[in-house]
Amino acid sequence: MTLARITPVILCGGSGTRLWPLSRKSYPKQFVPLVGEETLFQASAKRLSGSTGRLSFTAPSILTASDFRFIVTEQLTAIGIDPGAILIEPEGRNTAPAILAAALHLSASDPDAVMLVAPSDHVVPDTQAFHDAIEKGLAAVADGKLVTFGITPTHAETAYGYLELSAEPDANGTAVDLKQFVEKPDADRAAEMLAEGTFLWNAGIFLFKAKDIIAAFKTHAPKLTDSVATAVAKAKTDLGFLRLDPEAWAEADDISIDYAVMERATNLAVVPFNGGWSDLGGWDAVWRELGPDADGVVTSGDATAIECENSLLRSDNSHLEVVGIGLKNIMAIAMKDAVLVADMSRAQDVKKAVTALKAKGANQATMFPKDHRPWGWFESLVIGGRFQVKRIYVHPGAALSLQSHFHRSEHWIVVEGTARVTIDDEVRIVSENQSVYIPLGTKHRMENPGKVPMVLIEVQTGSYVGEDDIIRFEDIYARGQGAKG
Predict the structure, then answer these.
(1) Structural contact between residues 472 and 402, judged by C-beta atoms closer than 8 angstroms
(2) What string of DSSP letters covers 47-109?
(3) Measured between alpha carbons, how far is 354 from 88 in angstroms, rounded to an integer?
(4) What single string gives the DSSP state of each residue in 250-298?
(5) How far apart are CA 323 and CA 306, in angstroms?
(6) Rounded CA gap, 385 and 364, in Å?
(7) Cis before 90 (ω within 30)
(8) What string of pLDDT tens digits covers the 485 residues of the chain?
(9) Are the C-beta atoms of residues 105 and 237 closer than 8 Å to each other?
């Protein structure tokens, strides 16, 4: 049996504001373990890897933002998947430019390459059923069609766009020609479409040959094609990443692939999929996916529900217990620095919280408690008038840059692993339960020379402890990646 080679193209640049406070601009939902031990991005990558049935997946191509590039590589490494190309978008321009950039890059080596484009933040519990659906789409792709996947509706949903089919789908899941795209409906229209049987949810998952989608862009979005082609042609390789040219990219329209191409193309087919799917577009979707108990209650983390109904209680802070008593239709999500409490029916309005917090200048609107860097991460434990205490986690073999500070001195206490510490011209090893003092103005660096993670507590003291009080003298590479911090 000949295997069909498919290149997964995984889009992971979104911010997911409807899942605040767990999902934020600096660390969006695809990188968070929302419904299992793995993150949504890791689950997506595993779902589109290896060989199964008639399918053979190549290394994935990833489209992401510069701030997420090291998170992407770290999370793929953790599940044993080597990425193919990682294309860095200078700024978010929606799905059309991203997909076209991936197609142009792939087409340079293989114009007939079959691309499976998928968001990184969807849940598809039945991987085999999804692979079967992909196989069903291959015949249409061989005929030069652009294939999209439609989800069989389970309820009258108003948060999704719909696909209207030219005929009712058969029991085998055979591809059906698309009649038209339908915008998100109101409740009455959603109920009507559910009853008619020829409408599917638009999942935003696509299957086509690189040359065919490029041809569609040239026909329906020629200006966009020119700017994205220039951005790819002028892209620069940086530590294994491919940085698209920022000037050309800025000229690209901020537009979805549906608006740019799909709603105008005539060679579209839809593969119906009823194997279970969710885009986790709100906390109500997370509640459904986690499987409420007989009372309609879901608890996650350190949360306890007492005589509650149809509610979601979640704590992502091991030092914070969430307890609900007599709650009905409530979602309560607690993190170290923010708590959301809302009626379950207002799940789609959570993004309003982000808007309100931005207006008042609250860091919680966009910044995650942990600040992820190429070498690891840090979190602030306590901030005072003239001091700050941080916990710093450094990957094995990783290092921070050589740096100094104008306004603060630092005390480092190693609590796990071993640190190699540079202070001016002196290099020393600091082991677990040992400490070292970094005087104000001295050049210094911390490294983890060991095979296990290194964790230290940093106590900063001085007149100013902001992150911008730093001079970097040298950035070195950690695990093949550029170290910053």
Answers:
(1) yes
(2) HT-SEETTEEE-PPEEEEEGGGHHHHHHHHHHTT---S-EEEESS---HHHHHHHHHHHHHTT
(3) 25
(4) HTS----HIIIIITT-S-EEEEEE-S--B---SHHHHHHHH---TTSEE
(5) 8
(6) 20
(7) no
(8) 577 899 999 999 877 789 999 999 888 999 989 888 899 999 999 999 988 878 999 999 999 998 898 889 889 988 999 888 899 999 999 999 999 999 999 999 999 999 999 999 999 999 999 999 999 999 999 999 999 999 998 888 888 899 999 888 887 878 888 998 998 998 999 999 888 889 999 999 999 999 999 999 999 999 999 999 999 999 999 878 999 999 999 999 999 999 999 999 999 999 999 888 998 989 999 999 999 999 999 999 999 999 999 999 999 988 899 999 999 999 999 999 999 999 999 999 999 999 999 999 998 999 888 888 889 999 989 888 899 999 999 999 999 989 999 999 999 999 999 999 999 999 999 999 999 999 999 999 999 999 999 999 999 999 998 888 898 886 544 333 333 34
(9) no
pTM, two decimal places: 0.87
Q: Is the dihedral of CA 383, 389, 393, 394 positive or negative?
A: positive
Tokens read off for 204: 């935003």
Q: CA 182, CA 162: separation in Å to the nearest integer?
A: 5
Identify whether the C-beta of residue 79 lies closer than 8 Å to the C-beta of residue 26: no
Burial environment of residue 397 by CB neighbours within 10 A (0 to 12, 13 to 18, 19 or more):
middle
Look at the block and give the residue holding tokens 């793929």: 76
